[in-house]
Structure formats: C-alpha cells, structure tokens
Write a structure and sequence with these properties.
By secondary structure, the chain is mainly alpha-helical. It contains twelve helices and no strands. The longest helix has 15 residues.
Length: 199
Amino acid sequence: MKKNWSIKILNSFKKLSELDDDLNHIIDKYKLPVSRKESNDFKTLMRIIISQQISRKAAESIYQKLKNKKMTTYRNFLKTDHNYLKDLGLSFRKIIYIKELANNINQNKINLKEFENLTSEDVYNSLIKIKGIGKWTINNYQLFVLEDCDAWPGGDLAIQEAIKNLKNLDARPNENETNIIAEKWKPYRGSAALLLWHY
C-alpha cells in the first residue's frame, strides 16, 4: 500500500518552496520525496536505534533478520539472550539500548500512542531519559512517525552534505552551522530535512 504524506507535511513543503529558492529548486527538479511515514510502535523505534551510525543497507539487513526471528516485539526482545541477538548482527551496546526501550514500554513508563497528543518538547523530554536514545533518534522518530514538521536532525551527515552542495559551500557545515542555516526554515525544518535527504 502506498503511503502518503499528511496534509500538514504537504503544506510545509509548499511553504518551504516560498521561503527558500534552493529548496524550491529541489522540488522543481526532483519532485517531492516519497512518504516514509512509519507506524508508531516499538519496532519502528527499534529500527531507528539499529540505524544509528551505520548505513541504511546494513541496518535494514539486521532488522530483517530480527523480523524473521520474530524479535520485533518488545516482549520477545526482552526475553531473548544477548548472545543470540548479537549473532543476528546487533552490537552489545544496541542490544542494551533496545532492551532499555522495551523495558520502558513493558513497565508503562512510556506510552508511544500518547506521544501523538503531546508537544514536541514533551516527547523529547520523555525519550531523552532512555539510555541510547539521543537527539538524532528522537528527531527521526518525531519526523517519520509523528510527522513533526519542525523536528530537525542538524547533526545528520547526509543533511550537512546536502546543504554544502545546495548552498555551494566550500566545506561541509558542522551541526551548529547547519542549525544556523536552518533558522530561516522554522517551523518547517523537519520538512526541509526530508527535501535535503531527497536531494
């Protein structure tokens, strides 16, 4: 089934095309990115954690192995031995991170469905307390699951590289420089990130 962006995201793309000629150029030349909206559940957040600091292809391979072994529910993940999970491609560090997330859900310390009605700040403050979940993971979750138009992963290398090319910069901007450039895109920085990844 083909997923579609929400009206909110589609409207933000339109606003960005008016705010920045370079972003308008991306839309003109490459059209809009295909929706990558994800379901709001444990397996999606697990998948984002797996993706930390490795290629998308490697992350997808590990996730598929876990899925084939029915390890993408928090209950199954919690009761599975570390060594078995390591054999499926996960590092010990990521096993600990994902178990920590699973524990938080299992003990009702967080409720992912409730996040749909909370502010970005409240979602951030709830998730940042969980070991292994940092700014990058939360921004991805807010963007692809909650469709938060302003969730901004300024530390993402692909985004930094896209800005360098799009803005004809001599060097790839660091996170701080990227955040300054993105100021003009508020409150649509998340949607700008979608366009930059697409580019």
